[in-house]
Amino acid sequence: MRRTLALSLGLALCFAAGAAAQDSTAAVDDVELRYELTGQGPPLVLIHGWTHDLRTWVLQMSALRRHFTVLRYDRRGWGRSGGHPDVSRDPVDLDRLMAELGLDSAMVLGHSQGAHVALRFALAHPERVTALGLYGSPPPEGFGLPWSGPDTLPSNMPEIVEQAGIDSLAAILFSHPLARGFREGRPGSRLAGQMWATNGGRDLRDPRPPSGATPPPRTDRLGEIDVPTLVLTGERELPYFQVVADALAYGIRGAERIVVEGGGHAVHLQEPERFTAEVLRFFGVTGTR
Fold it and tell me: What SS3 string covers 145-185?
């Protein structure tokens, strides 16, 4: 597995270097956050998911920066940002980062765990959000259906890492339905390999409970979201997350439910043109379908 990860990393270096843009860091309370602010137009914030960092949006950036002022950043504890991962602290960090950069409000799009952060942020700071995108989102608190089917993730991932190493967990995850839709040799697959190889499993090697800096989003608060909302999944998304997406779209008034053909939980990496077209269309760029 080390050889596979090293190969993925090596193949990705030239691709990522060519696609990378100039990024910066900002002091946000107790940590330095790595971010990139680029493009022109209305502000759009991109929030990455678990094990990823701001590089996850590389395949979207060429199109998005032509229409939006795009802020993408490494959440605390991920990529090159300091601190320890803490989803309850992430909304506070984003609020501080936007203030530091002079962004009063923005459209906000989050993927997977980043969608959880986006929903949490929208409920904690509704004045900051002009439109919301929830992509591959986990359920809010109070969602009655447990994630107990064959598509569930191992509940003992920290123990697997401690006892057998990060590569053993990689072998499990890369063969899990979570990875459906990746094709070897494609740019998105190489980028996913690169991010995995450099994330180090910090949250699994040193698991900590959230600090409670913001309350978790709850099912009974979905009706408070009153901005245009996109709820998106890939066609091959985990069945449980498809059910969650349907529930989010039902609970948020006027939400638009979209399924992107061909990809799974990481459809933005697997079918980037289709994914990007839906994002552009929803956030107001005409002529993209």
Answer: CCCCCCCCCCCCHHHHHHHHCHHHHHHHHHCCHHHCCCCCC
Check whether 97 has a pLDDT greater than 90. yes
Residue 19, pLDDT > 80, answer no
Cα dihedral sign, 254-152-52-34: positive
8 Å CB contact between 192 and 182: yes
Contact of 60 with 272, CB cutoff 8 Å: yes
Rounded to whole angstroms, how far apart are CA atoms 168 and 157? Answer: 10
| pLDDT tens by residue, 129-139 | 999 999 999 99
Q: What are phi and psi of 73, to 5 degrees?
A: -155, 160
- Max Cα-Cα span within the chain: 52
Q: What angle do CA 112, 240, 153 make, to 5 degrees?
A: 70
- Sorted by where each starts, the structural domains of the chain and their CATH numbers stand as 2-282 (3.40.50.1820)
pTM assigned to the model: 0.91
For 149, 273, 279, the CA distances from 225, given in Å and listed in that order, are 30, 28, 19
Q: How far apart are CA 116 and CA 54, in angstroms?
A: 16
Residue 189, pLDDT > 60, answer: yes
Cβ neighbours, 10 Å, residue 102? 8
Tell the residue number behind the tokens 């309370």, with chain if given: 29
Do the Cβ atoms of 37 and 101 come closer than 8 Å? Answer: yes
